[in-house]
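Annotators were shown the component list below and the corresponding predicted structure, then asked to write short factual statements about the assembly.
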Amino acid sequence: MDPTVIDLSRLQFALTALYHFLFVPLTLGLSFMLFIMESVYVMTGRQVWRQVTRFWGKIFGINFVLGVATGLTMEFQFGTNWSYFSHYAGDIFGAPLAIEGLMAFFLEATFVGLMFFGWDRLSKLGHLIVTFMVALGTNLSALWILIANGWMQNPVGATFNPETMRMEVSDFSVVLFNPVAQAKFVHTVSAGYVIASVLVLGVSAFWLLKGRWVPVARRSMTVAAAFGLASSLSVVVLGDESGYALTDNQKMKLAAIEAAWHTSPAPAGLTIFGVPSMATHETRYEVKVPWVLGLIATRSLSGTVTGMSELVLQAQERIGSGQIAYAAVQTLKANPNDLTARAAFEAHKRDMGYALLLKRYVADPAAATPAQVEKAAWDTVPSVPLLFWSFRVMAAIGFAMIALFAIAFALCSLRMHLNARWFLKLAVIAIPLPWISTELGWVVAEMGRQPWAIDGVLPTFLASSSLTPAALLTTIAGFTLLYGALAVVEVRLILATIRHGPVEHEVEADASIDAPTVSQPLVA
Amino acid sequence: MFDYELLRLIWWALLGVLLIGFALTDGFDLGVAALLPFVAKSDTERRMVINTVGPTWEGNQVWFILGGGAIFAAWPFVYAASFSGFYLAMFVVLSALILRPVGFKYRSKRPDPAWRSRWDWALFVGGLVPALVFGVAVGNVLTGAPFRLDGDLRVFYDGSFLALFSPFALVAGLLSVAMLVLHGSAWLSIKTERGPVQDRAVSFGFVAGILALVLFALGGLMVARMPGFELVGAVETGAPSNPLHSTSQMVAGGWLANFARYPWMVIAPALGFAGTILALIGIRSRSGVLAFGGSSAAVTGIIATVGCAMFPFILPSSIDPHSSLTVWNASSSERTLGIMLFCVVVFLPMVLAYTAWAYRVMFGRVTTQAVNTSPDFY
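Structure shown to annotators:
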């Protein structure tokens, strides 16, 4: 495989996925907040809550369409850019994507139309149910996508079939109840709820600072404070490191995040600061807090966190075992009835992916030299400085969000939130932070999985399509231009909507008189 | 319960159901968007046209996304080979489709006429380009795509973007545009009030219907003269999915062989012609229901014709006889096909039920008055 093609394919996936995830978490969280706000409206019958719901519904709509539009790219990108992955994993990985469409996205997309167009055509309760269906659909959608992603991190319930040269499902329920996927789901949707809460909190704070739309702003702030506190606690407490003890590569990810080059005696200390070096395999200027890492990672005082050097030695052994499986598959390709090869394959198939790591250095992994095996084993270490810092910034923002919402909740409970100007300013400044945090979360998850596309099964450098660099550069440039332009348009529309405020239709038409062309009322 | 052969057959049929479902629902959204700048002149008219599909296009688009997911799950070889092979074409389609959600939602957010006009043309592109490229892609599937699989079943593609646009593929592309524009204008004739927009829509629809008839017939004549594909040797219908174990070859006029072998398949092209003619009659007599019923039958018949002609091929290779993907060698495992069939049986009826309900809630023509007064409209 041409390394340029791999790098460009990864760049495009990173760009389009990270961009897609600017919009998705807000959809996940805001849909539930809309349901909460509208429930209050339906229960109390007070118009101001309808105004609250409709305003945030507008913001939801502007954001939602970009999530949908950029999701189109994601659905097809595995086929366009990662066709060998698609072949290798389609038997398992395709199913959650298809079920996502069938069970979740249809629900979300069908009801979202009614949510916007059905205000006058549905009863109050009917519309509330529609809003709930949208929230349910978006969150189920996340569940299936994270089951798919969780399988790439921890590929359970599947085995390699030499006759079809791909992974095939052996037990689908194990794929569904993959603990890594479950942890990821809770962590990811909670992060989405935090993002939505921070936006609602910040915009409400902005209005309160300006003394505009106070009735809407203070109600929105109360919802955001409560929902945000629960979510920010959930995102940290139910962080997905609970799955890190499960597999060798998840252990490697944890070790890389902690820059643990060697196994240290239990309970391990947590490195708060340091400068990890990939060249010397050590971390300079370390600042450690004793015991904490052991407690977080193993939930005990006696469990050890395995270091990278030790994990590399294990990888080396698995490469050796994988070479036997790989050789057996080559024999089985020519003669499927070779019983010796079949037995060898069955005994070593778990490690076959490790032999594929050698393909970077030698065409036939079975013929690799010990030096090549050692090099390939060290390839299982992801970029330590990147993971170390991404994780720390992500976690710091996570804790900051808990503090922010704890204060917000206290102030709202004491009815002091209208006058605490220092806090209102803080809430406005905090708006971008959770976006940075979630994007870094994906960097940790996906870069931490390297060198694997599917953990322990298929290396990334074998997973891409056989494309030319020119084709990839064309699409990267195209997506960058298109996405860039849409981002500018979206942000400006959201800002304009916030500036315009939560006005209902009649008032709105009057408000647009100062605009040069008033042929049409400004409506969502 | 079902054996592997039957599951593969069912999933071949479901592939057809999904593609037809997409063309029937999102197809008229594409047609409407492609017609937008021509059938609607003033801003109110354009908003009327946009709001005929406003509440439902999003759900319709899921047929496309589900199509992608279902091909991935049930036909992973097809997913891997076709989308990477038609790489730049896919990029063009996706870019155009990305413009659509944003265009619908953002267009009426600002009163500035230049802003609105830009989005109108973006919507036009978002409707026309996918319709054209999908047709061109089907044309290329019929001629066979220049790809081969190596011993590890990795796909290599030898074609170029411009080579996709052969004369036959262009005919297929134009047929797709004509068919969806006809379908879109039939939709407009049932969803808009009587007036200039509806008048223009049916005029365009009439021309599109005539073109669809001519292009469908022309495509049929070209298919009769060009090579189709057939399997060579014993056909293992229940064997593990590995295309390298089967062999195909080109045969002149091979795509017509199925219609002789299974005469009932003639229903598909007959439905294509009859539906188009019914739609034309509906348009002439100003019966929106007949026009839309006819165009729906036409869309179903035309797409089914391609599937019937090609069976059991899904994506034949024009350069390597051992790489052609068929119903018997390109599917997921028996277990995955079974699980996915269960999901379809459970969820598809639910989808159809709430989709029908959504259409019922939004039932009725979009009027100028509603466009000018409703706060919910785009």
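Statements collected:
1. Chain A touches chain B through 88 residues (CB under 8 Å).
2. Chain A is about 70% helix and 5% strand.
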